[in-house]
Amino acid sequence: MRDGLHARAERAAHPLVAGALWAMAEGLQHHAELPSTQPVALADPRPWRVVSADHQTHGRGRRDRSWLNTAATGLAVSVTLPLAAGGGPVPEAIAASRVHRVGLVPLCVGAAVRDALAAAGVETGVKWPNDVLTTTGQHKLAGVLCQVAEGMRSVVAGVGVNVWPVGSDEGHHSVAEELVAADRPAPEDLREQVLLDLLDRVAVWHTTWSQVTASTDPASEEELLGALGAMSLTLGQEVDLHRPGGQVVRARAEALDASGALVVQERSAATGELGPRSTHAAGDVVHLRRARDACHDGPVSAEPADPRARVASRPSDPQEVSGRGAPA
């Protein structure tokens, strides 16, 4: 893997991407088994440190959901992303200036996962805020967890990907199964290929995010939001937003804002008419579910019963990145 990252660094078109890939290669730590890669990475959040494991025994998800990982079937990896471009220490003032847009980081990491799976031959999209699903069938293949590290100078991005099938579990979907369904062979080194492509694309998307947050040109932000919106499986769809306390908001998902929050147009429960717009941060939403009894343009993935691809965090310390761009 280190040789592959070094080779990608040498071919990278942008020097910041090259530097990130080289730093990842030098900071790569692989384990046969860990309770979870995320706390290991958070304990020493050096820029571009990569912690991966063949088997996670206690992977956790958003709002403390479980993520089950059968040995050697999937990817479990955490990458420390500095809150500025490059791989060196981040000045506190620069890091603070980017905090309000940290909520875009999980979406950028989700976009990197989507790109890596496309390179493997599987087309996917990003379900707001942290899931990666197939574009046909809406099968969940991956999830993303981002947590702000101590000092708020970096974000640790955890990614889980279902690469190989797990026994006879009908609720589990994997990259290999999607390839077989499309009459394409799954190479023996599929896990390694997906991980290498994932780290490569994380470096690219992080560089883009860093440049946008450093820019005063609103066009660059609009371009990034447009790119993220283009791969969204949520925008334009009818959804039910489940809020803490049991409140459910029926709405049409309209846009992403600069903090990564979801902008929706609420639908009146009494009349069914679309009404005012509201903005919802990831930390304020328990579930985003399909509006099952509504007329809408296409399906929005419901939260699947199977927990294996759930990757997110408990809402306590360390703090999870919310759509507001600040810790939830």
UniProtKB/TrEMBL annotation:
Its EC number is 6.3.4.15. InterPro entries: aa-tRNA-synth_II/BPL/LPL, BPL_C, BPL_LPL_catalytic. GO terms for cellular component: cytoplasm. Pfam families: BPL_C, BPL_LplA_LipB. One of its GO terms (molecular function) is biotin--[biotin carboxyl-carrier protein] ligase activity. Keywords: Biotin, Ligase. Residues 292-328 are annotated as: Disordered. Transmembrane segments: none annotated. Residues 49-159 form the BPL/LPL catalytic domain. It is an enzyme of class 6 (ligase). SUPFAM superfamilies: Class II aaRS and biotin synthetases. Residues 234-266 form the Biotin protein ligase C-terminal domain. This is biotin--[biotin carboxyl-carrier protein] ligase. It comes from Kytococcus aerolatus.
